[in-house]
Design a protein that fits this description.
Layout (H helix, E strand, L loop, with lengths): L1 H12 L4 E6 L3 H13 L3 E7 L3 H10 L6 E3 L2 H9 L4 E3 L3 H5 L5 E4 L4 H13 L3 E4 L2 H17 L4 E2 L5 H14 L3 E9 L8 H11 L3 H8 L2 H14 L12 E2 L13 H7 L2 E6 L6 E6 L3 H9 L8 E5 L4 H15 L12 E7 L17 E7 H7 L11 E2 L14 E2 L5 H14 L3 H7 L3
Parallel strand pairs: 1-2, 1-5, 2-4, 3-4, 5-6, 6-7, 8-10, 9-10
Antiparallel strand pairs: 8-11, 11-12, 13-14, 15-16
Helix pairs in contact: 1-14, 2-14, 6-7, 7-11, 7-16, 8-11, 9-10, 16-17
Length: 441
């Protein structure tokens, strides 16, 4: 952080702030805009895409930016930015095309929109930082490939759980330990929650009920842990991970949840728990050097063989600007996939579903997501949770049954489907999905 802060101060002194274009005008975008405009030196948030322009206008006003300019052409956007006016647009691709914008920050949660904008950003030499775990978990590996070809970065975000875990992972490895379990901690797990059950909580905090539902039903945490798995080479011990095993003990006792020999047989795993309190993410790691184990015990880390490390909080929009600076100034990707998908998120029926029904999106009434190893996803031809919206069921699917590609008629014309099929061919040598996307019924 000292390096990032110093580099941003230098950019400010040079009069060359990093100029950010933001996708989304919701709860998270509001906090991000306020943070960047009022608390981050050497960085400016200059334009916002919103499906409803008034919401984006309100976001700028919330941050004290005054009146913004609504634009619908590249020339209009360029003129507004050159005049130092905050800009709002319904045309997301304009943010990628504008010469006065250096980097795109995605805070939408939309896989299809994110895919289209990411490709356009890469084509115009712009980095893409994603607070969009759904996009990264579904087609992140292939998007990284596209970014690398253009000499730019597609990166996850500090503060969000994947970035928080990756920072902890890198730090623990830097100490000489081998991470075996990367864990995420929730306060609630119920796969059958829906926007109606979560509406009161969402309204209390000014959030979207569907997004809050994705937190409660396990979909969001499955997306998050998938990103960590793909960046570390970890797997899941079983589909769904531990499905949120309850744990109320001390953080120092977290190693008791895992059989080290079973974990070693896999290599390393991602998982999540419900509790303990005052822990947001954790890493359980071992050390091969008995001399260092002696010191770890002296330093009150326990007897091992698994040593617990944890972070008690996550501060998503507060820390997100650090990711932008890392990517733009240092080319330091927060969670670069190692080599294709290790884990993905499959769609599971939240209730009995009937042939002919059209699937709603994640965080709604019909499905929840579970993390599964990529090999199982490929062999079972599972439909990913991030790409189920608008697909029409061809057969009945029972509650808690995984939905497969063979069970649905795909939503036509999606870029994200094409990219996921390319991802399977590129990294797994599997061509069945390309054939399926070409013949969607």
């Amino acid at each position: 952080m000292i390096i990032v802060d110093s580099a941003l101060r230098a950019r400010e002194a040079e009069g060359r702030p990093i100029r950010v274009g933001l996708l989304g005008a919701g709860f998270m975008a509001q906090g991000l805009t306020n943070q960047i405009r009022n608390s981050v030196r050497g960085m400016e948030l200059v334009a916002i895409y919103g499906r409803k322009p008034q919401k984006a206008i309100d976001v700028f006003r919330y941050a004290g930016a005054g009146d913004s300019v609504v634009v619908d052409t590249l020339g209009g956007l360029e003129d507004a930015l050159a005049a130092g006016r905050p800009a709002v647009t319904e045309e997301a691709l304009l943010l990628c095309q504008a010469s006065e914008i250096d980097v795109i920050l995605d805070a939408t949660g939309s896989v299809e929109l994110g895919a289209r904008v990411a490709l356009e950003a890469f084509a115009h030499g712009k980095h893409f930082v994603a607070m969009n775990a759904e996009l990264d978990a579904t087609i992140g590996p292939i998007l990284h490939r596209y970014a690398e070809r253009e000499g730019v970065q597609f990166s996850a975000c500090d503060g969000d759980e994947p970035g928080l875990q990756m920072n902890l992972y890198r730090w623990v490895r830097g100490l000489g330990l081998e991470p075996r379990v990367m864990g995420n901690v929730k306060g609630l797990q119920d796969p059958y929650r829906n926007p109606e059950t979560q509406r009161a909580f969402a309204e209390q905090w000014g959030q979207n009920p569907a997004m809050v539902t994705s937190f409660a039903d396990g979909s969001k945490i499955s997306f998050e842990q998938t990103i960590v798995a793909n960046a570390t080479g970890a797997k899941v011990a079983r589909r769904g991970m531990s499905r949120g095993v309850p744990f109320s003990g001390s953080p120092a006792e977290l190693p008791s949840l895992y059989d080290l020999e079973e974990v070693r047989a896999v290599g390393s795993i991602v998982d999540y728990t419900v509790g303990p309190a005052f822990v947001k993410v954790f890493c359980l790691a071992e050390h091969a050097d008995s001399k260092q184990r002696h010191y770890l015990e002296l330093y009150k880390m326990g007897e091992g063989p698994l040593y617990p490390f944890w972070i008690p909080y996550h501060l998503p929009h507060f820390e997100a600007p650090a990711s932008i600076a890392r990517v733009v100034l240092f080319g330091d990707n927060v969670a670069r996939p190692l080599d294709g998908p290790q884990v993905e998120v499959c769609a599971v029926a939240k209730c009995d579903l009937r042939a002919g029904e059209t699937l709603d999106e994640y965080g709604m009434f019909m499905t929840y997501g579970e993390a599964a190893n990529a090999e199982e996803m490929n062999e079972g031809r599972y439909l990913p949770e991030g790409l189920l919206e608008g697909c029409r069921l061809l057969r009945d699917v029972a509650k808690d049954e995984v939905i497969a590609y063979d069970d649905v008629e795909l939503t036509p014309g999606r870029v994200a489907d094409r990219l996921r099929a390319e991802q399977y061919r590129e990294f797994m040598g599997a061509t069945w999905l390309e054939e399926r996307v070409r013949a969607p019924v």
